[in-house]
Amino acid sequence: MNQIILCRHASTQALEDLEGSGKVISKRQNDSPLSLLGQKEAENMKKLLKKTGYRWDAVLCSMFTRTRETGAIINKDAKKPLIVASEFNEYYVSPEGKDLESTKVGTARAMTKLYALFQVFDSVLLVGHKSINQTILRNLLNCTYKTSLKYFHKTMETVVLRYNWRLGDNKWKIIDHFTV
Q1: Which of 149, 127, 129 is nearest to 138 (CA)?
Q2: Region at 11 (left for phi over 0; alpha for psi -120 to 50; beta for the rest)
Q3: Pick from 107, 105, 116, 131: which is nearest to 83 by CA?
Q4: CA atoms within 13 A on the CB side of 14
Q5: Domains of the chain from N-terminus onward
Q6: 133 falls in which pLDDT band (50, 70, 90)?
């Protein structure tokens, strides 16, 4: 694998309904479908990725509805395999929002799955969640936790990573960063 497009999922109906309501729920516990805005965001990301020339051999996403729907919309024209894997789910937490999974365990499951695909695909689009995308970024770039926190705060925020020795790369690096 020499390119990974890390993309946070689009806006969901549940999170839009919460904005301004004063209610608080664990965002990790909501498996809401995309809102109309989210569907439009994903469609716009599909157009932007096509315009910029980024290609992928497969789309990877978590089991959550919001990542699967985002990935399906972006991938509609490309028609590449859509691989749904629990390894890319958010960190597991209880309904009360208390951690059930350490970051080490979450890192191990996400990176093990990703590394297993390195020999299978040259380029992937991974539609994930803020925390898992930050974890993947941190591990591939070997950067600090604080550095990784600069990314994936907005829905559809995307970071393109490349490691291609033919182009002179000697490690993974960010080659693009954008949102729609």
Answers
A1: 149
A2: beta
A3: 116
A4: 12
A5: 3-178 (3.40.50.1240)
A6: very high
Are 179 and 158 in contact by the 8 Å Cβ rule? The answer is yes
Residue 92 has pLDDT above 70, yes or no: yes
Contact present, 81 and 149 (Cβ < 8 Å)? no
CA 109 to CA 115: how far, in whole Å? Answer: 10
* Cα distance between residue 130 and residue 153, in whole Å: 7
Distance CA 114, CA 122 (A): 12
| Sign, Cα dihedral of 9, 135, 88, 123 | positive
pLDDT at 106: 87
Mind spelling out the 3-state secondary structure of 125-147?
A: EEEECHHHHHHHHHHHHCCCHHH
Of the CA atoms within 13 Å of residue 129, those in its CB half-sphere come to 23
Instruction: Assess whether pLDDT exceeds 60 at residue 24.
Output: no
Structure tokens at 67: 């990542």
- The bridge status of strand 173-178 relative to strand 158-162 is antiparallel
Beta strands in 28-96 (DSSP E): 58-61, 82-84
Structure tokens at 24: 């608080």
Contacts of 120 (CB under 8 A, 6+ apart): 1, 58
Amino acid identity of residue 20, one-letter, is G
Whether 2 and 118 have beta carbons less than 8 Å apart is answered as no
